[in-house]
Amino acid sequence: MSKQAVDTAQAAVGRDAATAPADAGDAGYSKDLKHRHVNMIAIGGAIGTGLFLGAGGRLNTAGPALALAYLVCGIFAFFVVRALGELVLYRPSSGSFVSYAREFLGEKGAYVAGWMYFLNWSTTGIADITAIALYAHYWSLFTSVPQWLLALVALGVVLAVNLISVKIFGEMEFWFSIVKVTTLVAFMLISIWLLATRHPVGGTTPGTGVLADHGGVLPHGVMPVVLVMQGVIFAYAALELVGVAAGETSEPEKVVPRAVNSIMWRVAVFYVGSVVLLALLLPGSAYSAGESPFVTVLSKIGVPAAGDVMNLVVLTAAMSSLNSGLYSTGRILRSMSTAGSAPRFTGRMNRSQVPYGGILLTCGVCVLGVGLNYLVPADAFEIVLNVASLGVVSTWVIIMVCHLAFVRRAKEGLVTRPSFRLPGSPVTEVVTILFLLAVLGLMWNDPEVGRKTLLLVPLIALLLVGGWFRVRGRVARNADDARGELPDTAR
């Protein structure tokens, strides 16, 4: 981004800062996240458990066409993050899209956005601790340790680190992302060498012959590719973290545009590129949901230690995802707590300016995931992945709806759009929303998991309605207090 464009963005932020409604939940945070932290958080959000573990089972199900699914979903993910980036430059907030939903859709919109995001990350946290336990079982040292116990230990470690300070969180994510990016680049270079030299991988000669000998790009037809879309959406779930992190950096107008614009090429290189290479090295049937596809390849090339190293790296990726989930839900729940739509204790902060109440609530749900690992260890990851997808899709839809409302107000002259904008508005938002809803609808064609997941929608809606009637009085009182409409004795 040019210096002139950055200056224009800064000017737009400055103009709107005086008129945009402040979020009470933003008070009290330190601004300790640096440019390198936010940039690497954006990278880390694009590389997580969905790629390192989830790609194995999806390659087995959909075959090489999975690369196309990642590309299509990645384009729409970029639109969502670009829209969020524009909103961030309008008004940075740790409450992120929940804060924007409050401004443009009202308190009901913020309530739905916040709790669906909590559903997303609390269930994603379960998926992460499940992945960590699966990774640990790769080593014989941990084979005899119950999966639920490994999940519990992982949760305890990440919780302790997350509560220290936002600076420690930023440093952890920075180095986690460095490890993930370095490892993926190394894997891709090794894969290219294997293809160039046609070095056997577990008895299979890599190259286009792998596709020709095992059913081509669509070995199982189109429908399996369509059915894995919700899992692919889940793989991109952490991209919106850049919006939350912007509330704790001193210069969001500089770092956010650069971080958002770099997401598209990261998707193309890391997701699409990795899946294409995996498909050219081994047939889809060689991969499985219980093992990282990268570990599968490296373990078959005759270097046993390679699989061990890669397994350690993907375990790190799962720890990173869990760390990010606790971070983001803590900030989102605090924004909701100040408005009255979340329990009061979720708004509490410790001496290190960390909203520990919301973090502990998310951990409480993750503890239920420990029980899930105890009851159904073989299916725990896929079960929570599909539930988390509901939260991801709803969050992204709400971001796009907020952006539509924002653009409408800008046309009315009520707010000023920054120079960093989502291209093609309002068509881009509408098409993205329709795509995301279509992904949900297509889940009905999967009777094993997808259909059961969709049947949860009425239950979730009922819980949201019931919860709203429970908190709406407190929300109204807090809104009146914020406007100064109540006398001092009533506050």
Describe this protein's structure.
The protein has 491 residues and is mostly helical. The longest helix has 36 residues, at 304-339. The radius of gyration is 22 Å and the shape is globular. Helix content is 71%, strand content 0%. It has one domain (31-469): Amino acid/polyamine transporter I, CATH 1.20.1740.
Write the layout of secondary structure elements.
Layout: H1 3-17, H2 35-46, H3 49-52, H4 54-62, H5 66-90, H6 96-105, H7 107-136, H8 147-162, H9 166-197, H10 208-213, H11 223-227, H12 229-235, H13 241-245, H14 252-261, H15 263-281, H16 293-299, H17 304-339, H18 356-375, H19 380-411, H20 427-442, H21 450-454, H22 456-483
Helix pairs in contact: 2-9, 2-14, 5-14, 5-15, 5-19, 5-20, 6-7, 6-19, 7-8, 7-17, 7-18, 7-19, 8-17, 8-18, 9-15, 9-17, 12-19, 16-17, 17-18, 19-20
Give a nutshell description of this structure.
Helices cover 71% and strands 0% of the residues. It is mainly α and 491 residues long.
CATH architecture label name: Up-down Bundle
Number of strands: 0
Helix and strand composition category: mainly alpha
Beta-strand percentage range: under 5%
Gyration radius (Cα, Å) is 22 Å
Largest sheet: none
Low-confidence stretches: 5-19, 485-491
Q: Termini, distance in Å?
A: 47 Å
Shape: globular
How many domain modules? 1
CATH level-4 homologous superfamily:
Amino acid/polyamine transporter I
Helix content: over 70%
CATH class: Mainly Alpha
Number of helices, where a helix is a run of at least 4 consecutive DSSP H or I residues: 22
CATH topology: Amino acid/polyamine transporter I
- Average pLDDT metric: 81
- Compressed to H and E, one letter per element, the order equals HHHHHHHHHHHHHHHHHHHHHH
